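BUG: 3D viewer hangs when loading the predicted structure for this chain

Environment: internal workstation, default settings.
Expected: structure renders.
Actual: progress bar stalls at 90%.

Input used:
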Amino acid sequence: MPEASTELQYDTPFHLLLAVILSAQCTDKRVNIVSPPLFAAYPTPRELADAPIEEIFEYIKSITFPNNKARHLKRAAQMLVDEFNCEMPSDIDSLMKLPGVGRKTANVMLSVVWNKAAMAVDTHVFRVSNRIGLTNNSTTPLQTEKTLVKHIPEDKIATAHHWLILHGRYVCKARKPDCHLCGISGFCKYFEKESRAKK
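Structure tokens produced before the viewer hung:
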């Protein structure tokens, strides 16, 4: 995956923020179906901040946890209007002030929008890192993030985030990893362990 990048479709940093908030415990495919009408209705934070929760909900009702996410979207837009003059902040602390934005979402924004050396750890990154041996029995996403950032060259971190996600999504799947299709099985601790167990 030499050109690895996010599979979320967006046109502005604001719309990427909305898409990433919506993607929590939901597939990118579903978010990409829902987001075009949402983006058209709310091109900037101001329109979204002024919209009733019930109206926002109608656009995202097929997404997981639509009630909570509708509130997060509106409150995040309000904060962008009130505290950031409708501009997307570009540092992790400011991003994490936004409702619905945790460390993972903030790191996605930093790596995708500004190509910063930020490692967003989702379930795929967490699982794949432990399986292949990039981390050693990490127990938390933050522990995984710190280990990966420490050992991956800085200019590769933003891309490595996507490599790990895509590898976990399409090859190193949670329940039935396709080890026979994997180009790095020769370096993988999980594959080595499974191979020994079959002997």
